[in-house]
């Protein structure tokens, strides 16, 4: 019998996207190939405790009436004591300790701060544990919308015009901020610099709405972006790192079609709210798709991406404008990242296999 690869699935976390991470975990637990992989589910509570969770996909189903969460069950994961040691242990609620065995790869399906932003990646790099996805720098860049835009501009990639505002600037010079925002025109979007899943995002159609929008965004981060509203189709594509010696791979395009909603907010993304239609593959000419895929690959490489990403665009009358780049995109079975790969011929279980294979050292 072939030896199985041991995967530590890491989910939950301290960010406002905790429940979405749990839902992603449910999808992965249900789909991962149990003939190839043994899974150690590790949840991170909202307070930051690492606990041994149940290997039960149903426990983490996305339900608007009862969003899934990691609860503190009294266990504590003990990570390896030094680089090169891959043994995980758990302290149980009764005070005993047991080995969980050696882990081959960590799959950190964490969204938002304290997980997608390079913090967990730094811990895993210090421990010498292989993991799925980008490393510290690319994760930090992808999480911070200001620095994502800065790097992409330097790489010659079009992004929406913006201004970045600190909490201190807003508190002490709101009129200056309002002047900078007015120069961008209406409508505008106000976003936390470091948050995902459209958490804390507001669409402003009258500058009288700016103070309320800033309050919502500053509740998530102490730096906020005010962006020019771009008119165009909202299209996305999924990216996979190339195998050694092979180029970056990019999926077909998906499209977010607004039927009766101002923008693609949290409720529309995850709770089935009306007014949004997801189309994949999106209708697009061969030239448009080729151009979009080329820009997505360039953006991924510009930040030093590894493993996976989703690149979000506006397709305007003047061409493509990158909106955001997500280094750990939504990965529930209905999310756009897997949907784009499924439409490109890669099933959800095969996608999980591929991400794990990309993360494993060649010797394993």
Please outline the helices and strands:
Elements: E1 5-12, H1 18-31, E2 37-44, E3 50-52, E4 76-78, E5 87-91, E6 97-102, E7 105-108, H2 119-127, H3 136-143, H4 145-154, E8 162-166, H5 167-172, H6 174-182, E9 188-192, E10 202-204, H7 210-218, E11 223-228, E12 233-240, E13 249-258, H8 266-270, E14 276-279, H9 286-302, E15 308-316, E16 319-326, H10 336-343, H11 348-359
Parallel strand pairs: 1-2, 1-7
Antiparallel strand pairs: 2-3, 4-5, 5-6, 8-11, 9-10, 9-11, 12-13, 12-15, 13-14, 15-16
**CATH 2nd-level architecture of the largest domain:** 2-Layer Sandwich
Order of helices and strands: EHEEEEEEHHHEHHEEHEEEHEHEEHH
Shape: globular
User: What value does the average pLDDT take?
Assistant: 93
**CATH topology (level 3) name of the largest domain:** D-amino Acid Aminotransferase, Chain A, domain 1
Alpha-carbon distance between the two ends: 16 Å
Low-confidence stretches: none
Task: Provide the number of structural domains.
Answer: 3
Strand percent estimate:
25-35%
Strand order in the largest sheet: 14-13-12-15-16
Cα gyration radius (Å): 21 Å
Structural class: alpha+beta
Number of strands: 16
User: How helix-rich are the residues, as a percent range?
Assistant: 25-40%
Count of helical regions: 11
CATH top level assignment of the largest domain: Alpha Beta
Biggest sheet architecture: 5 strands, antiparallel
